[in-house]
Amino acid sequence: MEPTKFENHIKETFKGSEIKPSEDAWNRIKGQIRNEYEPKRTGYFRHGIAAGFIGILILSVLYFTTDDATLNQEVQVAAKPSTPFVDKEKEELLKTPAPEEESVITAVEDSYEADEEKSTTVPKKESKRELVISEDAKLANAEELQNNASEGSNEEIDTKIAEVLARVNALEANNKELTDLEVDSLLRQAQKEILAQNLLNSDNKVNPSTLLSQVEEELDQSFRDQIFEKLRSGYNKVRTAVADRNN
Amino acid sequence: MKRLKIISFYNNEKVLIRKAILGHPNAQRAIYEKFAPKMLGVCRQYIKDLHYAEDVMINGFVKVFKSLNSFRHEGSFEGWIRQIMVRESISYLRKKQFVVFDDDVCEYNTPNQITFPSSIDIEYVQRLIDNLPEGYKMVFVLYAIEGYKHSEIAEMLDITESTSKSQLFKARRLLQDKLKEQSILGYGTH
Question: What digits encode the pLDDT tens for the residues B66-93?
Fold first, then answer.
């Protein structure tokens, strides 16, 4: 037999040779390969935890956003009864019989109309459909609102000064002497009315954004004082002008 | 019909491999159960001690499962596992034992004609191979049983092709001598 045949014979002999491994062999393999596959499983587990956390975050954001919306609706409903009061004030002013004040009254009416127009042009900020609004965006929004409010309030202040003057003149026409305190109280009332007017938009509904900005403004009393000071100085100027004219 | 069965088996093996890659313990166990006895036989051809051969087989299977996703389904899966087992056995022998490949120049004379009984005992042949020096044994098993070429053996064992040939020649001669001694050979040389 040639060596190649000899080798072929050995090859054939070994071809089907099998030796049964011990019982423990698989457990040893399993123990070693489990370490290989476990980190992958913990990876999936971590991904699951992260996904769950993100889900909870989104749900909580949705939940709180929905709460705000319902709150806004409640505020709108609650604010409705206050509108007749403003209308009454307007009617009273129009009814006040003082010949000198005709021009003032027309000015008041014009300013009311102008206010209404302005309030309609003010963009409605309550459409907060976005899920997440950054703090910066909120701040910018509040600043814009305050600017709009202050712009509008200048015209309102003039109107209110005219109203106060009309009242004072009416009272003086009835031979009633007014003290400084009484004038101050009239000015305070006008200030309140301006603030209340700021809360209402053209539809006589409470603007939640304005309400929010008002709440923020309450923290800083200087805004109120500013309005009061403007009213007072405006009143004094007009009084002086009228007195000078009369002289 | 036969062809369908072959395709079905092939697909099953593919599914099994895919599941084993994904870490399904049952698929891994099925692969082990199917190939472990054959692979222990392969390791045993190189390593005399069965316990050590089993250790090598276990390490080989761990490597099989760890690198299962690198199997490209281009050749047979059994062949791929077998290759890992052979390399693992060689690596073991080179680490644990002192393997010497003597580079003595051999005269590649025409081999002696030897007769070989048809009903040879596998354990006896295994013992003969076990008693060969490690260098001879490795080359002989790789060439005669696994069917590698000298160039491949040279690359695997980091030796020259001529060294591989001389190792094989010496292994053959030794085996012949052993067979003569044991009187398994019916006749000696002609």
Answer: 999 888 888 899 999 999 999 999 999 8
Task: Tell me the fold of B2-96.
Answer: Rna Polymerase Sigma Factor; Chain: A (1.10.1740)
Distances (CA, A) of A68 to A127, A128, A134, B71, B138: 11, 9, 16, 58, 81
Domain regions of chain B by residue span: 2-96, 99-190
Residues of A in contact with B53 (CB under 8 A): 19
- Which numeric CATH code is attached to B99-190? 1.10.10.10
More confident position, B133 or B9: B133
**Cross-chain Cβ contact A21/B54 below 8 Å:** yes
Tokens representing A178 are 């007014």
Residue B115 to chain A, least CA–CA distance (Å): 5
Partners of B23 on chain A (C-beta within 8 Å) are 37, 40-41
CB atoms A9 and B120 under 8 Å? yes
Structure confidence by residue, pLDDT tens digits, A168-202: 788 877 767 777 888 788 888 887 887 777 666 55
Which among B23, B44, B144 is the nearest to A7, CB-wise? B144
Determine the residue of chain B that is closest to A19 in CA distance: B37
Cβ–Cβ below 8 Å for A5 and B40: no
Min distance A13 CA to chain B CA atoms (Å): 6
Q: What is the pLDDT of residues A146-160, one digit of tens each?
A: 565 555 557 777 888
